[in-house]
Amino acid sequence: MRIVSADTGGAVLDENYNPIGLIATAAVLVEKPYRTATLSIVKYSNPFDYDLSGRTALKDEALLGLKLARKVKPDVIHLDSSLGGIEVRKLDDPTIDALRISDRGKAIWHELSKDLQPLAKRFWEETGIEILAIGKESVAVRIAELYAGIYSVKWGIEYAMKEGFVRIGLPRYMTVEITENKIVGKSLDPREGGLYGEIPIEKIDTDWEIYPNPVARMFMVFEAKI
Amino acid sequence: MRIVSADTGGAVLDENYNPIGLIATAAVLVEKPYRTATLSIVKYSNPFDYDLSGRTALKDEALLGLKLARKVKPDVIHLDSSLGGIEVRKLDDPTIDALRISDRGKAIWHELSKDLQPLAKRFWEETGIEILAIGKESVAVRIAELYAGIYSVKWGIEYAMKEGFVRIGLPRYMTVEITENKIVGKSLDPREGGLYGEIPIEKIDTDWEIYPNPVARMFMVFEAKI
Amino acid sequence: MRIVSADTGGAVLDENYNPIGLIATAAVLVEKPYRTATLSIVKYSNPFDYDLSGRTALKDEALLGLKLARKVKPDVIHLDSSLGGIEVRKLDDPTIDALRISDRGKAIWHELSKDLQPLAKRFWEETGIEILAIGKESVAVRIAELYAGIYSVKWGIEYAMKEGFVRIGLPRYMTVEITENKIVGKSLDPREGGLYGEIPIEKIDTDWEIYPNPVARMFMVFEAKI
Fold it and tell me: Could you say which of B112, B137, B162 is where a domain stops?
């Protein structure tokens, strides 16, 4: 099974470890044995001008996932929304009302589906590829999350080299290592069976460290400074 | 404390990684220090003719647990149903109605208790051994789950040697290793404190691999082919 | 950020692994990189005369946290109550009623706040230091929990040297190691990013072992005997 997925993550943190804005949306192609991505692309946001209360993330993820899917023709696209794996093209208003999710979740999807449902329907008609709202059940969604973290670190290193310092909150229970020529991100949850990702980088000359976010248990902080 | 427990697990998967039917019910004797079983027995189902919507698993588990318990005389029997450790012999209809569980859970137990309650009562009267509905709180239940996975892999190897190929979904966050003369199954959750199991096998000549189930995060897939 | 936190844990267990009473309340100072404590103090309870149904733990924790905070002047105090990080000095009755917690949780806090709210208010007026009800989100609370477990083991060793035997239930998914001159406690959850604690001890001559609590999955038992 060849799966395309996308997820958003990595946040610039203030000095109290609260998120200011999200950094990266990553789309990945995940193939057997499903432990990492065979291809990844990224779209950066401006974390200093980001509406954390908004719902732009899932739409951005769908669009970036579609972009990668047009290129690699996967069997299926997985979105990070835990609706039990339902096809997004089928998410009309009565179907959303019938979902076993919170009223708030329904309100969000009534809004989201205005854009995403026709998009998914058209893409399916053209290609036969389904877009599923599968969320946390999907290993591909988790791998996309790891890549969002890895790309956030890459962005952070470049930011620190210009501005002198950066403090980033990584996605849930993941850590990163920086070697001579790549950034490796690894899940800290062994129950996931060894999920990881890596992207190439130029040799860097910033100091960096990883440590637990004191006010968000199971989330790590990445700091870099020159 | 000497505990007998039983659990069902391991599923033949189709090419989309969806379960077709369950493979093995294992009963185990667990003794201090409670990290593995000192004795185990198995009852195989036919995964290609299995009613996944049915409730036969818990009844099978109770019967297999009783079979082992008659032999080894444990202090207690643990069943995989999370009712807070209540004695199954006390599960009459008013008691079930008073449980803090979902209406669906109550309906299932009203049905199940018709068989299990008299069985548990008689066994307790004869032996003084209680059958508890303790579920996920019990380390013995988890070890039984690991053994169900290990026996499923044993079944899978034999199936693959006859049929050429098998794809099995293991119980939650566990993995297996096959050595010259045994199958070892290990919990992937270090919080459980190192739970594992092993059973002897003949030397095998199939290729096998383990990888994450892409549509069921935290579950591993075992594949074997000749 | 310099954080003081406090937590209670470690329980004497009976022969069926049920808790008799809690052993230790630990207060810790946690500083960057937030993986362990730079300072810790302990207050022992009498586990053989302990009201497990009572709510004395949180009050004890607040008082011990304040004691340490007066000495080390942290930026903030974290209590083990998951109210989303609200300031305890603001917990008057209307605010408690407006919290999104269970009715039982509200009843407990209506009672608790009679003592804790004026205490927190006065401390904040004197020092500017907030006491937050942050609970499981806080790494500092988790480190305090690890120290409560470590101090419980220290108490247990001394108890076993006098009485011959002790059986202690440690806080959730943590383990301990005893070396020549210290007790080291470690989180068993790698998602937390390597949290641990240690306290010095005299050389001991008791036998000890750690194993999973068979009736409380993810909790370890510490036993010592001479």
Answer: B137
Considering only CB atoms, B137 lies closest to which of C15, C188, C217, namely C217
Of C35, C85, C134, which is closest to A212 when you measure between CB atoms? Answer: C35
3-state secondary structure of C129: coil
Residue A143 lies in a domain: no
Residue A180: inside a domain, yes or no? yes
Same-domain status, B150 and B131: no
pLDDT band at A54 (very low <50, low <70, confident <90, very high): low
Q: How far apart are the first and last CA of chain C?
A: 43
CA distance C36 to C143: 6
A218 CB within 8 Å of a chain C CB: yes
**Residue B126 and residue B173 in one domain:** no
Domain harbouring C176, CATH code? 3.30.420.440
Domain that holds residue A16: 3-137
Q: List chain B residues with CB under 8 Å of C188.
A: 190-191, 193
Return d(Cα C40, Cα C42) in angstroms, integer.
7
Please check whether residue A145 lies inside any domain of the structure. Answer: no
Rg (CA), chain B: 18
ipTM of predicted complex: 0.95
Tell whether C148 and C203 lie within a shared domain: yes
- Model pLDDT for residues C53-102, shown as the tens digit of each residue: 767 799 999 999 999 999 999 999 999 998 999 999 999 999 999 998 99
Q: Is residue A171 part of a domain?
A: yes
Burial class (CB in 10 A: 0-12, 13-18, 19+), B116: buried
- Residue B225 in contact with residue B179, Cβ under 8 Å? no
Separation in Å, CA of B140 to nearest CA in chain C: 7
Strands B3-13 and B76-79: parallel
Contacts of A15 in chain C (CB under 8 A): 1
Residues of B in contact with A86 (CB under 8 A): none
Same domain, C132 and C147: no
Q: Which residues of C touch B193 (CB under 8 A)?
A: 173, 175, 188, 210-212, 218, 220
Residues of chain B under the 70 pLDDT cut? 54
Find out whether B12 and B47 touch, Cβ atoms under 8 Å. Answer: yes
| Contact across the interface for A191 and B213, Cβ inside 8 Å | no
If asked whether residues B52 and B131 sit together in one domain, one would say: yes
User: Do A114 and A63 fall within a single domain?
Assistant: yes
pLDDT level of residue A51 (50, 70, 90 thresholds): confident
Last residue of a domain, one of C137, C154, C178: C137
Q: Could you give the number of structural domains in chain C?
A: 2
**B152 shares a domain with B128:** no
Neighbours of B51 (CB within 10 A): 11
C-chain CB neighbours of B217 within 8 Å are none
Residues A132 and A156 in one domain: no
Of residues C180, C177, C183, the one with CA closest to residue C203:
C180
Asked if A212 and C140 come within 8 Å (Cβ–Cβ), the reply is: no
- Tens digit of pLDDT for each residue in C26-53? 999 999 999 999 999 999 999 999 888 7
CATH of residue B220's domain is 2.60.40
Collapsed DSSP state (helix, strand, coil) of residue A111:
helix
CA distance, residue A217 to nearest chain C CA (Å) = 5
Among chain A residues, the shortest Cα distance to B192 is held by A191
Subunit contact B211:A34, Cβ cutoff 8 A:
yes
Which residues does chain C have within 8 Å of residue B140's beta carbon, measured at their own beta carbons?
A: 214
Q: Touching check for A186 and chain B: CB below 8 Å?
A: no
* The token pair that represents A52 in the structure block: 């954390």
